[in-house]
Each structure stands twice: as C-alpha cells, then as structure tokens.
Write a structure and sequence with these properties.
Order of helices and strands: HEHEHEEEHEHEHEHHHHHHHEHEH
Strand content: 15-25%
CATH class of the largest domain: Alpha Beta
Helix content: 25-40%
Oligomer: single chain
Number of helices: 15
Protein name: Alpha/beta fold hydrolase
Number of strands: 10
Pfam family, one: LIP
Number of domains: 2
GO molecular function, one term: triacylglycerol lipase activity
CATH topology of the largest domain: Rossmann fold
Largest sheet: 10 strands, mixed
Shape: globular
C-alpha cells in the first residue's frame, strides 16, 4: 500500500484549528490531588501518578458546529458529535531513577454516554518551551479527535511543560516511553473526576520524534504487563527508529539540512547518560560555546539551524568526528545509540509505519529497515506504508488522511 499526494479531505482537520483559535480565553479551574506524596513503585497505578488538572478551554458541540458551518464546511458539521473540554494534566513520572512532575494536554468529549476510546498523540521535535502542548498557544487539530468521541492525550515530554528545567531527553527510549505511559495511567483519574467513561481501546499515534516515542511507549506497554495497559493499534511516521543508521548519515560527512537535530541528540545523551563531557569534546568553536544558549528553550529549531553549519565536518570537533569513523572509539555513544534503537523488540499489536519516500531529514530506508527487521522477528500485524514523493514535513498530512479511517475501523 502506497500513499500518493494528499487530498483536500484532511484540510478540514486543520480548518478546525483556525475556527477554534478565537476561543482561547482560558478559564482556570485547578484541581489538586491528595496531599500525600505519591509512592513510586515499579509500575505505579494511575491514582499514584496523578497530581493536578487545569481546565483551559470548554466549547459546546453546538458552537463547534456553528463555527464549522460559518466557514462553509457545514457538510462536516455532523462529524462534530461532542463538545470538548481541554485540560492541562500534571502527573508524576521517573527521570534518572527519581520522581519528577511532567505534563501534557488532555482533550475530552463532553456529555458522553458510551465509553470512548483513548488516543495518545506523540508530537514531533520541539525546541522552544513555548511549543509544549500544555502551553496551549494554539490548537493542533488533533483536539478534534475529542469532538468525534475520543479521549485525547498529548504528552509534553520530559524537558517541556512542568519539567522544562531539564534538557529534553531527545531519542531516549525508556524515558520517552514512561512519559507517555505514566500520562495514560494518570489520566484515568481525570476521566473519573470528569465522569467521562472510557473503553479499553488505546491507540498510539506519532510522527517524526513522535513516531519514535510512539514505538517506545508501545514497547514499554507490550513488554511490561504490570502497567495494566493493552495497545489496540499503533501508527508511527518517520521516527528515526534506527539511531545507528542515523549515525552513519553523520559519519558520511554529507551536508545535513537540520544540524539542530544532531546537536540535540549529542547534548541530550551527554546529559541523560551523565557523561558530563565538555561540549568542546563534540563541537568546534564557535559552535561549542553557543550550545547552552541555543538550547535553553527560548529558540525554535529554525533559529538554532541558522546559528549552526550544515557541514558535519565543520560542526564537529575533528577528533570526535574521526573517532566516529573508528569502531574502537566513542564506544559509549555508539552503545547508547544502539540501545535506543529498536533491535530487540517486535510489535505485537496492529502497527503501521509511515514514511515519505523523499524524506530529507530521516532517511526512508530507516523505516524500511525497521519494518524488515520487525517482519524477520515475527511481527504479524504490521504494515509499512510509503508516502510517495513526500518529504519530512509534507508526509504528515497524508499519513493522517490514511490513519483516521484505520483507527475508526477498530
């Protein structure tokens, strides 16, 4: 199955974003959990993870339908089955073995009678703290899952929202997984408080870094039954699942259009693995000295890219770059990249991998090789869907267009 150019159908997902953007006058209604400190165990229950929730926005169904109709999309008004309530959720998760507070966005349908499925959407790479989903500066379009009758979760990830004082754990499998899984479990307390019945259907969806995080969460759920969760279906797009192959891209010395991603991974691994090496070990000047201010959460990825060079040989310390070519050097980094790749697990739930064939950020071959590895490992409910002719940014919408009816089929 291949996907070709996107059709206008998906545009209505994003029209809704514009329609609702005028409604961002937030109400503040914060609910605190019991004062007793949560107890951290191997797989905490949802009530131990929940900290607080804050209502950010509430829109009744009739108003949503009117807004859709007023913009000439009345044909689709019937798809808006519920009003929506949007919350910031604060919950506990684990970072380097200690408990921290994390956050994310929850969007719930209003006045539901039958139990609704849960969809956890994992977003792509963010650099600026302002872009955390729970900051809610603008709707992503995914919130309309709630209007269609789904409980929607969008984790901020560690490094954003409540945990913004930590450098984001970029492409760290275990921490990424727990940030998602712990939010899924903590949200159960919010459902109960708001009297929103949920079913046992759980969908995971993500693109770019979110694709990687989606498979990380799926792996955690499928390999750790103590969480008490079961994935109904999972869809991941262009996620860079093979970090060793991504290293090969760097080692080639070819120009890379998004050097901010490369710098992000190195700094995150240096921090998370507690190597605490000086940044001059990795980067040439003037780049090494710039890194702390570039990655302080105030700048977008585009702004960071403008301050770096696309030439890996000019970006990286020559000694470090030479060591990347030597199988006996920089072993800690290479082992970390291997450990954070998907080499030792095969998805058990229905899973789709999507990837644009013209992706200039994460090579199409990354998903192809991951798919081949999964199939060789015995995956039986797996599809790989190339999106013909699309790059990293443009493949997202056709993925959604394919994905939505697939989710509805379960």
């Amino acid at each position: 199955m291949h996907i070709k150019k996107t059709s206008p159908v998906i545009k209505r997902f994003f029209i809704y974003t514009l329609l609702l953007s005028t409604l961002l006058s937030h109400t503040s209604c914060e609910k605190e959990a019991a004062a007793a400190a949560p107890i951290v165990v191997e797989a905490p229950a949802g009530e131990d993870l929940y900290v607080s929730s804050e209502l950010l926005l509430s829109v009744p169904r009739e108003l949503l339908q009117q807004l859709v109709a007023s913009q000439g999309y009345g044909t689709y008004g019937g798809e808006v089955k519920y009003g929506i309530s949007v919350y910031k959720l604060v919950y506990n998760t684990t970072y380097l073995g200690r408990e921290i507070k994390a956050s994310g966005l929850v969007c719930l349908p209003q006045h539901t009678a039958a139990p609704v499925p849960v969809v956890s959407v994992q977003h792509g790479t963010n650099f600026a703290h302002r872009d955390a989903p729970s900051n809610f500066e603008g709707l992503s379009g995914f919130e309309l899952f709630a209007a269609a009758g789904y409980a929607l979760l969008i984790p901020d990830y560690i490094g954003f929202g409540e945990s913004k004082d930590i450098l984001h754990l970029y492409y760290d499998q275990k921490h990424a997984a727990l940030a998602v899984v712990d939010m899924i479990k903590a949200a159960k307390t919010l459902y109960a408080e708001e009297e929103v019945p949920v079913s046992d259907k759980l969908f995971l969806v993500g693109y770019s870094e979110g694709g990687y995080v989606t498979l990380s969460a799926q792996k955690e759920i499928e390999t750790n039954p103590a969480h008490g969760l079961k994935v109904t279906a999972s869809a991941a797009g262009a996620g860079g699942y093979d970090m060793v192959e991504m290293l090969g891209l760097v080692k080639s010395g070819e120009a890379y259009a998004y050097p901010a991603y490369l710098a992000y991974v190195l700094q995150a691994y240096n921090n998370t693995n507690q190597w605490n090496r000086p940044l001059s070990d990795f980067f040439r000047e003037p780049y090494a000295s710039k890194m702390p201010s570039l990655f302080d959460g105030s700048k977008s990825g585009s702004a960071i890219n403008r301050e770096l060079t696309r030439d890996p040989k000019a970006l990286f310390n020559p000694t470090f770059f030479a060591a990347l070519q030597d199988d006996e050097k920089e072993l800690a980094l290479k082992q970390a990249l291997q450990a954070n790749s998907f080499y030792d697990w095969v998805p058990q739930s229905p899973t789709r991998l999507y990837h644009g064939t013209a992706d200039e950020v994460v090579p199409f071959s990354n998903s192809q090789k991951t798919y081949d590895r999964f199939v060789a490992g015995g995956a039986r409910q797996l599809e790989f869907i190339p999106i013909e002719g699309e790059g990293h940014g443009s493949a997202f919408e056709p993925m959604l267009e394919s994905l939505v009816p697939w989710i509805k089929s379960f």
